[in-house]
What we know:
The complex is a heterodimer. By secondary structure, chain A is mainly alpha-helical. Chain A is built from 22 helices and 2 strands. The N and C termini of chain A lie far apart (53 Å). By secondary structure, chain B is an all-alpha fold. Chain B has helices spanning 3-32, 56-78, 81-84, 88-91, 95-115, 121-136, 141-161, 172-191, 196-219, 230-248; strands at residues 41-42, 45-46. Chain B has a two-stranded antiparallel ribbon. The longest helix of chain B has 30 residues, at 3-32. The model of chain B has no long low-confidence stretch (mean pLDDT 87). Chains A and B meet through helix 9, helix 10, helix 17, helix 18 and helix 19 of A and helix 1, helix 2, helix 5, helix 6 and helix 9 of B.
Amino acid sequence: MEFILTQLSGFGGAFWALVIDPLTYIYLIVSVFLGITFGALPGLTATLAVTILTGFFGNKIPLDYSMIALLGAYVGAIYGGSYPSILLNIPGTAASAATAMDGYPLAKAGRGGEALGLTTTASFIGTVIGTFALLIFVWVLLLISKNIASPEKALLALFGILLSGTLMSEDLVIKGWIAGLIGLAIAMVGLDPLLSEPRYTFGWSYLLSGFQVVPVLMGAFAVPQIIEGLRHMEAGKVIALQGRILPNMKSIKRYLPTIGRSGVIGTGVGALPGVGEDVAGWVSYGVGKTVSDEGDKFGKGSIEGLLSSETANNACIGGALIPLLVLGIPGSPPAAALMGAFKINNIIPGPTIDPAIILRVVAIMLLASFTMFIMGLFTARIFIKILRIPQTVFLPIVMVLTTIGSFSVGGGINDLYLMLGVGFAAYLMNMMRYPIAPLVIGVILGGLFDETFRRSLLISDGDLSVFVSRPGAAILLTLNVLLILSQLPFVKRAFGRLRGNPA
Amino acid sequence: MDNSDDRAVLRARDFWASLGLIVLSIFFLWKTSDIPLFGGNRAGVSGADWYNSAAIVPLGIFSGMLVLSFVLLSIAIKEGGAKHALTSVGIGWNKVEALRFSTIGIIMLAYIVGLVPRVDFILCSGLLITALIYGYHGGHARRSVISTIFVGLAGLFAFAFYLPQSQWSAHVDDWVTLILWAVLSILVWLQSKGDRVLRIIPVIAITAPVFLVCAMAFGFRQNVPARTGLVFKQIEYHYYVTLRPIWRN
């Protein structure tokens, strides 16, 4: 009880400090607005919003304001993706893909205003659920994570990469794993963390410090989006918004169980390392379709279907921050970008993180969700106007933003070459349906994996049993092995036979 | 393209990609052999055990990649990827798409490699924005080629004439970029009748980079590319010499 009271008073203090600072509101309003705009414009994503703002703010403004800007943009962008899903039938972000299934038919039926109003409310409640889960679970996990040593950290990093490769692959799972390995390989460039041995530097001094995270993030997430957006023609006509946006309490009360369930699912999926908002949206949509009384209406304009995905993808944000803050393993691609921001500010997320930072993150998330809610309800029509801007107009500006952001954080031309190289490679990988998130997570976790894996071996004098003799390590190793085994064709066939489905 | 065609294209690409990955994995495994594994002197410290080596994790990564690449190759071959690899299905791109991608690629390359390091950021970004909106709005193939020529020329000039870093602050490339931007803008203006997007290009092309570079340099005190560029040098001078003293005093 005392612990809870201490945390609540700490959270109250952090919240109050933000509330009384006028600059908080400026950063919040601008970043949430930018986030919703990024989410609303098809072709721009939440990850891109966080990445670009990381480059823009870098480490030149106080960390608190930097976090407000990035978290505000993150919350806003995930919510903003619902606009084009509902009004254009084009998901603004991958996280809103499931939203389009029901949102567009609703808008076509003249219920666009109602859909948007309920989506805004559901996104707000979802974010709050995720935020409170973050406040509660982060402390429990932090206590557990104090006992995590090098073997567990190495296996956890590997699990994060493998899991994100498995769940983010659209085509073959093997491609997700290859992307993760490419990310790990990129992280190996530079001086090794234990002996300072140069690796793959080819005599180029720039490479001695390894690849900077921000240019890699920009290259992996921004450049392919720009090329893809410019390569294809602008699509679709925005449906005129009909009906009032402000939802009535009766509707909200009616759908509260759906919102609550989806919030919990979204938070849970978010807590899985490297998975992200799009998976959360689809999982919640799938569960909703199974358990709902109106499951047969899903995909034809069901409010429950719409709320299932929209609540979950916003709740996922809080969930995704749990592994990031506790273990230093990002729960989603935007969280990976957020980790880049932490890194350039010399903050190392993980068991050793300053607890005050966690409390500030929770307070910022809460304020950002309120800002998003108010903006969503009262300024929706501005975003609908923004939605009409063709991609070909804003993508060149994004290119300029990306360039100056990448240059400013790294401070060198080499970072721009790196960004372009990674960008073209990521574009080709996208074309071949390789997921990019495992690559980025591999780059971010590569150093941690390398260091902790080798430290484990050093401590045990090369005895590999260190990965099974500790209970935590044994569990994580089993999870890694099971994850790999579950994807092998003969295991899949065996499971299929067990389920009575021999295919 | 229907689903089976889509799959055939994907497997053909997988076939080529797996071959590329195999070559890369082998190359990096060979490069890893440069890092001492058993014994040897590392950074002045003598190590004698394999587990002490900086090569151990990279060896695992590239071996893993090699194995996965062979698995991918076998999947691609089983699903007909090798059969389609040398046919048009294997490429999976039509002429229009190829042209669009190559022109975007050239423009980005000219901008990042040729222009940004050497030319004033406002000028080169203005040219880029003008070229990209003009070239890709509405899907006119001819316009994308014209845009590529303009940005390519500016980039090539800056790159070829100011290759050594010591010459990067020269201004001739700034003037060349400015002239090319002006000519392209006139071209856009001549064709802008009836097209709202084309009409707003000059406004966006000027305001976006000016706002960004000033916010970055003066608002967030960040480093910006080509600080001694033709336009930014003047802005920076007047900011510190003319404007700042007004509110400082």
